[in-house]
TrEMBL record, chain A:
Protein family (similarity comment): Belongs to the ABC transporter superfamily. Macrolide exporter (TC 3.A.1.122) family.
InterPro entries to which the protein is assigned, alphabetical: AAA+_ATPase (IPR003593), ABC_transporter-like_ATP-bd (IPR003439), ABC_transporter-like_CS (IPR017871), MacB-like_ATP-bd (IPR017911), P-loop_NTPase (IPR027417)
GO MF: ATP binding; ATP hydrolysis activity; transmembrane transporter activity
Cellular compartments per GO CC: transmembrane transporter complex
Protein's name according to its UniProt entry: ABC transporter ATP-binding protein
Pfam families: ABC_tran
Keywords of this entry: ATP-binding, Nucleotide-binding, Transport
Domain (ABC transporter) ranges: 2-234
PROSITE patterns tied to this protein: ABC_TRANSPORTER_1, ABC_TRANSPORTER_2
From TrEMBL, chain B:
Family: Belongs to the ABC-4 integral membrane protein family.
InterPro entries: ABC3_permease_C, Macrolide_Exporter_MacB, MetI-like
Record-given protein name: FtsX-like permease family protein
Top-level taxon of origin: Bacteria
Keywords of this entry: Cell membrane, Membrane, Transmembrane, Transmembrane helix
Residues passing through the membrane, by range: 22-45, 288-312, 341-362, 374-398
This protein's record includes keyword Repressor: no
Annotated GO CC locations: plasma membrane
GO molecular function: transmembrane transporter activity
Occurrences of domain ABC3 transporter permease C-terminal (ranges): 291-403
Matches recorded under Pfam families: FtsX (PF02687)
Topology within the bilayer: Multi-pass membrane protein
Amino acid sequence: MLTMNNISKSFITDDVVTHALRDIQLHVNEGDFVSVTGPSGSGKTTFLNIAGLLETSSSGEYLLDGEDITKLNDSGRSRMRNQKIGFIFQSFNLIPDLNLFDNVDVPLRYRGLNASERKKRIEYHLDQVGLASRMKHLPSQLSGGQQQRVAIARALATSPRFLLADEPTGNLDSQMAQSVMSLLEDINKAGTTILMVTHDPSLAARAKRQIYIKDGHVSELTQKNSNLHLVGEA
Amino acid sequence: MSAFFTQLELGPMFRALMRNKIGALLIALQIALTLTIMVNAIFMMQQRSEQMARASGLDEANTFYLSNTVFAQNYNLKTALQQDLQRIRETPGVVDATQINAIPLSGGGWSMSLQTKAGDDIEGTGTAVYMVDEHGINAMGLELIAGENFQNSDIGWREEGSTQWPPKAIITKALAETMFEGDWKNAVGKTVYIDNHQPVQVIGIIKALQAPWNGWNGVERSMLVPQQLDSKGSRFFIRTEPGRRDELMPVIEKMLAESDRGRIIRNVTSMEQTRDESYREHQATNTILLTVIIVLTLITGFGIIGLAMFSINRRTRQIGTRRALGASQWQVMRYFMLENLLISTAGVVLGAAGAVGLNIWLVSTFSMTPLSPVLLVIGVIALLIVGQLAVSYPALVASKISPATATRGRA
């Protein structure tokens, strides 16, 4: 479903070249739940942004659902994000001036769905995260955990094949984090492929696959006798 | 089509605006105020421009006048006048000349009231009075459209302090229409009364001749009477062949001055200069009004840019999130342009009401004609365009915000 061949990303600032990612090779199958860990500044967010089409790679080939993303223009990437990818952000990224209904509605409008279809999806997914009764509330009236649930509902409303989660529990207490993680596991069981960046080893361990990024290189980890071992590039 | 309207996000956009009213409300009020002032200022400029564009009836491009002030003792005014006029008319390039008591559009002149019936208690029609001889019509370049000109035998002398009026007059079409309820052609041969009781027969109609006062609502009402002033101060009105006015103005001034040392020739002025001076205040007012319109429009435009830039800076993360969720650059740009359109629409609706209200006050206070709805519509459209132009740059900036802002910015 997701294949990266020799993906590299470098940034140039004041004639200084910083290599954020170097020759990434990665294949993610449909239905995978992949956690991405690594130290701060290792390139996790850059990796997630390229995987989610939020930024482009400097070189390499990226196939999503068989389509070569590197050949798409900005408009094509926007359409692809809307149709195939759902995003969950660490800071939830709900739009503060919109109520929960309108927040979940945002990507559905970009999809161009009609009003009744949108309403059906919004109500279904807000109900799925236990917030159907609060759809007229503003994000500021909710707890952090509830806001992240709304963000999950928004991500799922477009029925994405691929869910990208950037530190989804980073701003939540442990109880809320467990709850959100359980929700993600349920979503994965229902068939959605998930790529999750996290700092939390215990949450990362709950994924089917774990990859580790350091200095722009990606390695796959396997769990043997409760110890993680690098097994080479993923 | 349905998908297109869905993507416009008008409902959520409106609800979001309602939750952040202050900035939008201030801009809407600024737009409203600008429209109110702009439309009425344009209306006032339009009225002044229409006034300035009115034809005086004269051959302005080829006419000028001068003052003749006699200071010599034992001076034969009547003989000197005839000699002066004769010399002027014989000057090569001069078409004709006449003595005149007042100059159109100059701001100073004579006026009387004309009545269709004699009597002290009969309401009359105000008219400017020009005293000329039989050369008057030709010298001024007027167009006689009915009746006849004065004969030499009609011309009489008017002594200083006299209250007697000659028995004949030529009036403008506008004066005839006012006095005879629009039937100006039938005015020829009719008797009207001046100074309540003195009968005057209308012998001719001229197409147009404006009064000396451009702001008077009866500026088109004038009459010519066949009289020459027996006065030490008089004016000569001279018409030249096309294109020779400027050349002949100093020639005639010098010729008159040298021909008789018992008087002073001064104030040699063309009719075009007189028109310019007459409407100088109008032109200054129009310039001020135009400046006000431009400044107000710029302030409004900059206000819109400022609010939009502030709003975009405040919502950078939000815009990045929208991009991450699938908004294209065009959809982000359109969002801000539509948001401005909503605010501007509220502003122009308020402003249109304000413009009409202000116009009603102006009309009732200054007896102006009402505002044209077309002008209001043009004002509304112009401000909506200004709003869209002003917001286009900030909207473009917003559209360039990377979707990666959704994950990188932590604000």
